[in-house]
Design a protein that fits this description.
about 15% strand, 9 strands, alpha/beta, eight-stranded parallel barrel, about 30% helix
């Protein structure tokens, strides 16, 4: 990492060498990048800026001058099964600035990192996360499906190899275990946590989340800029609950489309980070400048294609959330 991109303080998480939480300089915040298909945007024409056929040649040079955080979406999820310890360990090894995760509450009150409401797609089991206990989820394999399906019929081999004997690497991942992984990193690694709604547990999700962050000393940072943790959601109500309980904890408002009342650059009260989809940024790049002029940071999801990385770099976004953190870091010259 070039000197002008380095953090000026050590990790804000406690490590084996740091018994207490240390402060940190103001660094760009982190954003969720969910993997949600967008349906008709119906955005106003005034913000619809044509996407140029060719990208400006110095976009990446600009990115090197303006530090863009690279966030591993569900871990290094192109190389290893999403939301598994294997994916997050690889993301840290790849040099990701931050890790992104989705959290859901189990029937017995544990926060686990699972994107979908049901476990059918990502595991060898069936059922809703909210109706299953942690022991039920721990009995499932969240790794074999990735190896079997994602590389079926492809010439190359996955960077990550599924080993049935390594249960922890592909078992259900609790948020507590992920927090410990970040705490044990030998450098600053930030964490972007998305609360999934709607759910039968409603506000209990945020309540349990803040209780867990408090155990790690992360629920009440001195300032939003000092926090290594961000809370994200498509639900403005969820973010309001977090702000009411922990006013200095940064929050990110995720958007699949931009509602008319937010097209002038505003965000819900107290929220400082805009989280638009890559599709919004492609079709309406002028929105990025509006959010930034309003004093907000902009974190874009999910950015995997080289041309999208270049577009984001040229627009000066603050964070790129991607399934391919190592490839994006390489493209940005890091």
């Amino acid at each position: 990492m070039p000197p002008h991109m380095s953090f000026c303080m050590p990790s804000a998480f406690p490590t084996a060498r740091q018994g207490t939480i240390s402060g940190a300089c103001g660094s760009p915040a982190i954003l969720y990048i969910g993997h949600v298909r967008q349906k008709g945007c119906n955005l106003d024409a005034s913000a619809r800026t044509p996407t140029p056929a060719r990208w400006h040649h110095d976009a990446v040079t600009h990115a090197r001058q303006h530090h863009i955080q690279v966030v591993a979406h569900r871990g290094a999820s192109e190389d290893a099964p999403e939301h598994t310890l294997a994916a997050y360990t690889k993301a840290v090894e790849d040099g990701a600035d931050a890790l992104e995760c989705d959290v859901r509450l189990t029937a017995d009150g544990h926060l686990v990192c699972v994107h979908d409401r049901r476990v059918n797609r990502t595991s060898n089991g069936r059922g809703a996360v909210s109706a299953l206990e942690l022991a039920d989820l721990a009995a499932l394999d969240f790794g074999s499906r990735k190896t079997r399906d994602a590389f079926n019929g492809r010439d190359e081999e996955p960077d990550w190899e599924h080993r049935p004997e390594d249960r922890e690497a592909t078992s259900v991942l609790t948020l507590e275990r992920l927090l410990r992984l970040v705490a044990d990193a030998d450098r600053r690694v930030e964490l972007a946590i998305e609360t999934k709604h709607p759910t039968r547990w409603a506000g209990q999700v945020e309540e349990r989340l803040l209780m867990l962050l408090k155990r790690f000393g992360l629920n009440a940072p001195a300032t939003p800029a000092a926090s290594p943790v961000r809370v994200m959601s498509f639900s403005a109500r969820s973010l309001h609950r977090v702000r009411a309980a922990s006013p200095t904890l940064p929050t990110v408002y995720l958007m699949q489309f931009v509602s008319p009342r937010l097209r002038d650059g505003r965000l819900p009260a107290g929220v400082g980070i805009a989280g638009p989809s890559m599709r919004i940024v492609r079709n309406h790049p002028a929105y990025v400048e509006r959010w930034k002029q309003a004093g907000h940071q902009v974190h874009v999801w999910t950015v995997n294609e080289p041309e999208d990385v270049e577009l984001c770099a040229g627009l000066g976004v603050d964070a790129i959330i991607t399934n391919r953190p190592r490839a994006v870091l390489d493209q940005l010259g890091r």
